[in-house]
């Protein structure tokens, strides 16, 4: 059995440590390894490329969105005035997406024309998200104002925008006899402008809206190529001929 003095024991421990340190250094083993974790803090980019601000839209339209990220995009959402109108997690490799939007159908199921701000939001796998710059568009759609089974044609707005004048052949069995009416775009109430003429074509308004103007010819002679221009009070009454091409 061997015994060592305290000085000898200290010497042996020192040699052992030196041997261990030499072994670790030569073998390339790092006794204090550093683990690097990489993550992306960059937000994705997103842009509405179509339509552009100022566009007028109606019916079903296509909205194009472009996205990009140094990672993977997990979701892209589309909004109109803050209300969601589309969302997808299927991202094409080129980053260009197309959304279909029925402009006549809002979130509550109503159909309201007006101005809307379109925005898109992209979110990546690291929960980074970006909202696009807004695109301001105007939604409009046709509103049926008359319900005649005959022809209601050639409408024209009044100067103040309160009435629309049009001609119709709904009042006579002869389809060539056209009378003129006005209709309110707000209430859809119709009012006939009664004149002493049977035919009225391409009705319009005077600048002040006090008179209406139209072309006319004598139905009995059926010489439509001899059209003359007439005016009448907007409330109806006797007409005044302005031009006579037979002269």
Description:
The chain is mainly β and 247 residues long. It has two domains: 45-139, Immunoglobulins (Immunoglobulin-like, Sandwich); 152-241. It is 9% helix and 39% strand. The chain has one helix at residues 6-27, and strands at 45-50, 56-57, 60-68, 73-80, 83-88, 96-102, 114-124, 129-131, 135-139, 152-157, 164-168, 179-183, 190-193, 201-205, 211-216, 228-233, 240-241. The strands form four sheets. Strands 2, 4, 5, 7, 8 and 9 form a six-stranded mixed β-sheet that branches. Strands 10-11-12-13 form a four-stranded antiparallel β-sheet, with no helix packed on it. Strands 14-15-16-17 form a four-stranded antiparallel β-sheet, with no helix packed on it. The radius of gyration is 40 Å and the shape is rod-shaped. The protein starts with 5 loop residues before the first helix and ends in a 6-residue tail after the last strand. The relative contact order is 0.10. Residues 35-39 have low confidence and may be disordered.
Task: Produce a short descriptive summary.
The chain has one helix spanning 6-27; strands at residues 45-50, 56-57, 60-68, 73-80, 83-88, 96-102, 114-124, 129-131, 135-139, 152-157, 164-168, 179-183, 190-193, 201-205, 211-216, 228-233, 240-241. The model is unreliable at 35-39 (pLDDT under 50).
């Amino acid at each position: 059995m061997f015994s060592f003095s305290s000085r000898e024991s200290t010497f042996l421990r020192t040699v052992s440590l030196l041997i261990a340190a030499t072994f670790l250094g030569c073998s390339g083993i790092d006794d204090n390894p550093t683990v690097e974790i990489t993550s992306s803090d960059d937000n994705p980019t997103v842009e509405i490329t179509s339509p552009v601000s100022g566009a007028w839209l109606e019916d079903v339209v296509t909205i194009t969105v472009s996205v990009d990220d140094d990672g993977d995009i997990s979701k892209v959402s589309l909004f109109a005035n803050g209300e969601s109108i589309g969302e997808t997690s299927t991202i094409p490799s080129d980053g260009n997406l197309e959304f279909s939007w029925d402009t006549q159908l809002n979130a509550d199921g109503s159909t309201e024309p007006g101005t809307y701000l379109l925005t898109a939001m992209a979110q990546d796998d690291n929960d980074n998200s970006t909202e696009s710059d807004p695109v301001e568009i105007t939604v409009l759609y046709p509103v049926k104002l008359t319900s005649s089974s005959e022809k209601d044609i050639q409408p024209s707005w009044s100067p103040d925008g309160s009435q629309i004048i049009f001609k119709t052949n709904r009042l006579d069995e002869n389809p060539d006899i056209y009378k003129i009416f006005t209709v309110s775009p707000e209430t859809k109430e119709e009012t006939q402008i009664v004149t002493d003429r049977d035919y009225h074509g391409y009705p319009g308004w005077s600048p002040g809206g006090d008179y209406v103007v139209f072309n006319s010819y004598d139905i009995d002679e059926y010489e439509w190529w001899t059209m003359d221009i007439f005016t009448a009070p907007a409330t109806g009454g006797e007409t005044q001929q302005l031009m006579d091409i037979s002269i």
